[in-house]
Design a protein that fits this description.
Blueprint: H1 15-26, E1 32-41, E2 53-54, E3 56-69, E4 74-79, E5 87-90, H2 104-115, E6 123-129, H3 139-155, H4 161-175, H5 183-190, E7 195-200, E8 206-210, E9 216-226, H6 229-248, H7 258-266, H8 272-296, H9 300-316, H10 323-333, E10 338-344, E11 349-357, H11 361-376, E12 382-385, E13 392-393
Parallel strand pairs: 4-6
Antiparallel strand pairs: 1-3, 1-13, 2-7, 3-6, 4-5, 7-8, 9-11, 9-12, 10-11
The structure holds adenosine-5'-diphosphate (ADP) and magnesium ion.
Length: 395
């Protein structure tokens, strides 16, 4: 299906362009190409570390990895996004973190694959990605999953999807030092075209939920900011959730109810702040499950209301939004044909998503860009996406 909004803000990329780049980097032809998508979370924000639910889709932006075998027991990684910063590992030596930050992602994946018993084979891998880096669209997970697929294909091995996702997450947590949950890697591995993925972050059970109404399209608007406050804001929110769960006597906030939290507030056991954090998490988990029901009932109007409610809760109760995200959501709300909008990802910057009638997508995109320009004096790149497929061996 063609998209009503052009995605030409971003550089074109395809299997031929990555094959060409592989040839200029390594001086010979690639043997194969793998791909792994980025993601947006439709709803269920800051619920993962509270044992709740998330509902991401894979987006039509991906990391490609072109690879070819080599016979000296070494693996080389290079990326068009990090020119001149290729790295090599010797499969006979222990794999250790390297001075180049980006390469810790694929190197961590190589280490985790070998720990999982995969007999790695020597190969060269070149990555190219049209997932914007550091925008909250999970370029890191798409890089890890693409690296894993390239290494597995070169080794002639396979792993079950859930194990692959877990192993990529461990690579990011331990080797790249980023404390992400399991959502990003799960959706990049398990995404299905036309479907969102309901992920139970406690049991790790997954369900594919249809997200393929031809009348609708999802816009992704990139604020291109990441406010510093976010660095401390995330661990602080996590800490407040854990403290609240301890006060309420539950394993995680997933097991708490709003009335329990209110009683604890009135008894002076929970601070006002802690109560607001609880109200977001408990409400957001309920909204996520309701959003799944709305999708199953083909009720995008209700789904959109839940998106707006999620945004308001993240802004007011969880306090992780920022003026750029609020401005995009407000601009979207003022447009005809918009079902709903919200910030997506951890917050303090990153992207907002807007669910809009396909025939209004172009006009809504233009309106948001214009209002963002007036307010902040710069561009806000917006692309349209449907729910894309998960990682695969392309050729
Ligand atoms: P996000 O995942 O939201 O884009 P992260 O900070 O988690 O942001 O990951 C971004 C980092 O991942 C980049 O700074 C870079 O180190 C690495 N990365 C992601 N994609 C690529 C790529 N195609 N080539 C090289 N490095 C990449
Ligand atoms: Mg990331």
């Amino acid at each position: 299906m063609t998209l009503p909004v052009s995605t030409d803000t971003f550089r074109p990329m395809n299997t031929q362009s990555v094959r060409d780049a592989f040839r200029s980097t390594f001086g010979r032809a690639a043997k194969g190409v793998v791909s792994a998508p980025g993601r947006v979370n439709l709803i269920g924000e800051h619920t993962d570390y509270n044992d709740g639910f998330v509902l991401p889709i894979a987006i039509e932006k991906q990391t490609l990895g072109a690879w070819a075998p080599r016979d000296d027991g070494r693996v080389a990684f290079a990326s068009l996004q990090q020119p001149g910063q290729g790295v090599e590992i010797d499969l006979c030596e222990p794999i250790t973190p390297y001075e180049s930050a980006w390469a810790n992602y694929p190197k961590g994946v190589a280490l985790e694959l070998s720990r999982a018993g995969v007999e790695l084979a020597g190969c060269d891998v070149l990555f190219d990605s049209d997932v914007p880096l550091n925008a909250g669209l999970s370029s890191s997970a798409s890089l890890e999953v693409a690296a894993a697929l390239a290494l597995l294909t070169a080794a002639g091995a396979t792993l079950p999807p859930a194990q692959l996702a877990k192993l990529c997450q461990r690579a990011e947590n331990d080797f790249a030092g980023a404390p992400c949950g399991i959502m990003d890697q799960s959706i990049s591995v398990m995404g299905q075209a036309g479907h969102a993925l309901l992920l139970d972050c406690r049991s790790l059970e997954t369900k594919h939920v249809p997200f393929n109404d031809p009348q609708a399209v999802l816009l992704v608007a990139d604020t291109r900011v990441k406010h510093d406050i976010g660095d401390g804001g995330y661990p602080e929110r996590r800490g407040q959730c854990e403290e609240s769960a301890a006060v309420l006597g539950v394993r995680a906030l997933r097991d708490a109810t709003i009335s329990q939290a209110r009683i604890a507030l009135e008894a002076g056991q929970l601070s006002e702040k802690h109560f607001l954090r609880c109200r977001h998490v408990i409400g957001e988990i309920a909204r996520t499950l309701e959003a799944v029901e709305a999708l199953r009932a083909d009720d995008l109007t209700r789904f959109g209301e839940l998106m707006y409610a999620s945004h308001a809760s993240l802004r007011d109760d969880y306090e992780v939004s920022c003026e750029e995200l609020d401005a995009i959501v407000k601009a979207a709300k003022g447009c005809e044909g918009v079902f709903g909008a919200r910030m997506t990802g951890g917050g303090f910057g990153g992207c907002a998503i807007v669910l809009v009638r396909a025939d209004r997508a172009e006009a809504v995109r233009d309106a948001i860009i214009a209002q963002f320009q007036v307010r902040f004096g710069r561009d806000c790149p917006i692309f349209a996406t449907h729910a894309a497929a998960g990682a695969c061996v392309v050729e």
